[in-house]
Specification:
Blueprint (H helix, E strand, L loop, with lengths): L3 H15 L6 H6 L3 H9 L7 H17 L10 H10 L2
Length: 88
């Protein structure tokens, strides 16, 4: 299972690099709290409340599911994209 700091790093990368990508724009719009919170937390710009952590966890679960993956412990977003491609 992916650790919370890696979840924040991966979701932060998704938010920073892919939120305008047509493939992920709907996902980014739907997760308009979890993605920015993960980004801000990863960059050290905020401290998360319990509710903030919950939003990130919910966003994480939706992201993993959207890629058709099981959370086996991911290190970065590229590893997740590759695993998703391998499952096709």
């Amino acid at each position: 299972m992916t650790g919370f700091s890696n979840k924040c790093q991966i979701l932060s990368s998704l938010y920073a690099n892919y939120r305008e990508d047509p493939e992920f724009s709907d996902f980014a719009e739907f997760n308009d709290l979890g993605l920015p919170l993960a980004y801000l937390s990863h960059e050290g710009l905020c401290e998360l409340s319990t509710d903030g952590e919950r939003y990130i966890e919910e966003t994480w679960l939706l992201f993993v599911k959207s890629l058709g993956l099981e959370d086996t412990g991911f290190e970065d977003i590229n590893e997740m994209f590759q695993a998703s491609l391998d499952n096709e």
